[in-house]
Amino acid sequence: MAANLFEGAALGSAFNLLTAAVVDVTQTVAAFSCRLDRIRGTLFSVKPLIEDIEKMNKLLDSPKQETDAFLDQLRKGEKLVRECSKIKNWNFYEKYIYSKKLKFLEKSLVRFFQLDGQVHLHRDSRRTMVEVRDVGEKVDEILSILSNGFPGWCDVPGTPEFVVGLGDQLQELKLMLLNKRNQVVVLSAPGGCGKTTLAKILCNDEQIRGIYKDNIFFVTVSRTPNLKLIVQKIFQSKNKNHVPDFQSDEDAIHQFELLLRRLAPYPALLVLDDVWSGSEFLIERFRISQAGFKVLVTSRSAFSRFDSAYKLKLLNDEDAKTLLCHSAFKNGIPNVQNDLVDKVVKGCGRFPLALKVVGQSLRGEPEVRWIHRTKKWSEGESIFDSHHHLLNCLKSSLDVLDEKSPLAYLDLKECYLDLGSFPEDQRIPATALMDMWIELYNLDEDGVDTLVNLLELSNRNLINLVLKRKVGHDVTDYCKGHFAMQHDLLRELVLHQIALEPIEQRKRMVMEINGNTLPDWWTEGNQPTLHATLLSISTDETFASNWHDMNPPEVEILVLNFQTKIYAVPHFMEKMSGLKVLVVTNYGFCQAELNNFQLIGKMLNLKRIRLERVSIPLISTSVLQLRNLRKISLIMCDVGKSFESYSFKAPYVWPNLVEINIDYCSDLIELPVWFCDLVKLEKLSITYCQELIALPEEIGNLTNLKVLRFYSCTKLSGLPGSIGSLKKLEFLDLSYCLEMAHLPVEIGKLQALMKIHMEGCGEIQGLPYSVRDLVQLESVICDEETSYFWKLHEEYLKKMKITVIKRETNLNWLHKLTV
Questions:
Q1: Of 261, 294, 311, which marks where a domain is finished?
Q2: What SS3 class is residue 658?
């Protein structure tokens, strides 16, 4: 088949025409320059081989055989390259398609020279050993190049022509890299944020160059990295005539260590660019004990276990605007209204890649195109609908989530897509996600699984995980105080992915309603049947609660986000017979009145209710009978009116309730007596309720209680003596109960108590001697003053460990801001 593929002038001519086309288009079209540079390098490298084989064929007078296949490939390649010059700069879809075709052309050329060329030479070597010997040496050299990279493969790339907003971050990253304690520095950010650009700038920095000289190796890592190949590339960049053939990864690292020693007296810097999650083993292999040797890793994942991690920040508004203007206008000077530029910057989420791509697509366009583009965005069209390159860049971060995390118990991608249920620019409480994921994915109720998944998403730079408040160093609820923040553009990506499926096939239905305009599919006659498990509806401040009918019988999670002062729960909730979790959040400034509250009482399978910033009406036994309810969370709610009922039969309407969380409810003055009838209750957490002054004596009836928390209830003066009846209580938190001066003598009866938190209890005058009976007590967390009282009883409490917390100067117990 391949005996005479290079025979005749036709083949040589076709090869030269392809080469000429590649050179011409590379010089005139910037869009494909990177891919064409690689093809040009391949063609130039194999040209001597082609010339030698042509000469050998003439000397041997070889007959012409099947040349048509490769001739056709070369001719089609030339046509493809020429077509690239006709692609318009704004046509990103065509640019993406042709980039794929060029990549295929490059692979087919490399494959031919590696396989068919060798077959050709092997056969003709039997006819003339002398001629083939010289050509064979060239084949070996070229095959080495094709396998290990072209000369300079690991050389530091040049920096982009225009860079903005990276000056301060360059200095921070440089200080981190030059810190003697850090051998591995991980530079991380989502795709399209400029990680590789910053790494290139760092490697070209005058100070860095002065330290490492020519010993900087810049290697782009594939999704499935080959360690031996990476080390071969490094060797090839230092000595192209001698590239070792390593027997194993261990051999490759050993040879690399020897190379580092030969590079002395100057140290070496290895840049591993674009390392994917799951490739930590590669970084570990390069942790070599060699004076001055450093490894800089760029990745979408933070890899926080390594020495030092630097998260690249997004551009600020000013720098983002500068970058957009540079991409969109000649000389970077806008010729459209400033508010249009600001709208585009906001739509791009300050992502450098998005700013470049969108800016280039609008370059030279009249103002009306800018108006049209921003108008479409405001109407709900996704930025990804018209920018496929941007979509593919960011979507790759989601694709890797299809692989389950080794640390987690659910599909990370499913987990991440659920975050789209919450509005943009809002903190997502980890406890709300925990409620959802417990029912969707059967996670543990202590929050460990949820927090592990959020940490994994944070490490992959898909969210920012923040700890807004640390509640008593609590390990009974790992999610409490944690919030996830999702970048606008990444949330847009989530919504775009959800919307790819037909409405009736979506597992998640996320709806964002502006004003009172409902989607057409919802109001038209032939409304599609919904099969979503999760339904999220977000409305703005002008929504009038004019709900249209809907039939969502399979919904298990309902998330309602609103901003109005009066909000009516949708009447179609009655049809959600399988509803398990209800999350209602008011994102407006003022407390909201919640109407149609009685509909919640018809959700017989409801297990978890979370209400935030709403005024709850009077609770009536005849209205709320939720026999499967397990958990209630009330955050910044007005509860005084709802808790006034003296006839409320709590054990009858909530017989299986095991957890109550009340946070920042400023009108809670006394805990209702009927709370104490919830005998199955295991966890009662009341935090930042700074008007709470008293607890009912009947609290001792909660004999199944395991966790009791009164964190930052600053006016609570004491505990009733009946607390001694809580024989199963394991954790008691009295932190920042500022007016609590004494503990009741009956506290010694808490035989199961293992942890007690008392930091910030500055009025405590002493402890009753009965604390010596707390034989299971393992941990006491308190401030220095209180610790003296506990130390008086250390000899009786053999298991007890006292942890002293230094008092924070910011007095966080005064915090009354939004949770």
A1: 311
A2: coil
Residue with tokens 């958990």: 631
* Total count of domains within the chain: 6
Cβ 693 vs Cβ 717: under 8 Å: yes
Q: What is the CATH number of the domain that holds 724?
A: 3.80.10.10
Q: What's the burial of 204, exposed, middle or buried (CB within 10 Å: 0-12/13-18/19+)?
A: middle
pLDDT digit string, tens, across residues 352-385: 888 888 888 888 889 898 998 888 888 778 887 7
Lowest mean pLDDT among 238-242, 300-304, 680-684, 814-818: 814-818
Whether 154 maps to a domain, the answer reads: no
Q: Is 24 helix (H, G, I), strand (E, B) or coil?
A: helix
Our CA angle for 9, 14, 18, nearest 5°, is: 150
How is 627-649 classified by DSSP, letter by letter? TT--EEEEES-B-TTGGG-SS--
Structural contact between residues 667 and 692, judged by C-beta atoms closer than 8 angstroms: no
Residue that the structure tokens 């209800």 belong to: 582
Two tokens, residue 799: 């298991």
CA distances for 638 relative to 314, 594, 625, 686, 689, angstroms? 38, 11, 21, 14, 11
Averaged confidence pLDDT in the chain: 82
Do residue 249 and residue 297 come from a single domain?
Answer: yes
Token digits of residue 778: 């393992």
Inside any domain, residue 245:
yes
CB 794 within 8 A of CB 800: yes
Q: How far is CA 358 from CA 43, 119, 697, in A?
A: 34, 48, 65
Q: Are residues 506 and 637 in the same domain?
A: yes
Bridge partner residues of 670 (DSSP): 694
- The verdict on residue 75 lying in a domain is yes
Tokens representing residue 530 in the block: 């919904």
CATH number at 613 reads: 3.80.10
Q: Is the peptide bond before 334 cis (omega within 30 degrees of 0)?
A: no
* pLDDT, tens only, 40-87: 767 766 666 666 555 555 554 444 444 566 667 778 888 888 888 777
CATH of the domain at 217: 3.40.50.300
For residues 95 and 350, the model is more confident at 350
Domain match, 536 and 632 both: yes
State the CB neighbour count (10 A cutoff) for residue 178: 13
- Which neighbouring-strand residues pair with 611? 584, 634
Q: Terminus-to-terminus CA distance in the chain, angstroms?
A: 73
Q: Is the pTM of this model over 0.70?
A: no
Angle at 391 between CA 389 and CA 395, to 5 degrees: 125
Q: Are residues 77 and 213 in the same domain?
A: no
pLDDT tens for each residue of 633-681: 999 999 877 777 656 677 778 899 999 999 999 899 988 888 898 999 9
pLDDT > 60? residue 3: no
Give yes or no: residues 350 and 234 share one domain.
no
What pLDDT is stored for residue 379 in this prediction? Answer: 79
Residues 130 and 193 in one domain: no
* Domain assignment present for 664: no
Residues 6+ apart with CB under 8 A from 164: 315, 319, 322, 323, 326
Question: Are 694 and 606 within one domain?
Answer: no
| pLDDT reported for residue 815 | 41
Distances (CA, A) of 532 to 83, 435, 512, 536, 555: 45, 18, 16, 10, 6
- CA separation for the pair 214, 237 (Å, rounded): 10
Asked if residue 138 and residue 46 are part of one domain, the reply reads: yes
Residues belonging to the chain: 819
Instruction: Name the amino acid, one letter, at 336.
Output: V
Q: Which residue type is seen at 803?
A: T
Give the residues across from 353 on adjacent strands: none
Q: Which of 311, 346, 369 is the last residue before a domain boundary?
A: 311
Domain that holds residue 322: 317-391
SS3 736: coil
In angstroms, the CA 312 to CA 308 distance is 13
Q: What is the pLDDT of residues 498-527, one digit of tens each?
A: 988 999 999 999 999 988 888 888 988 788
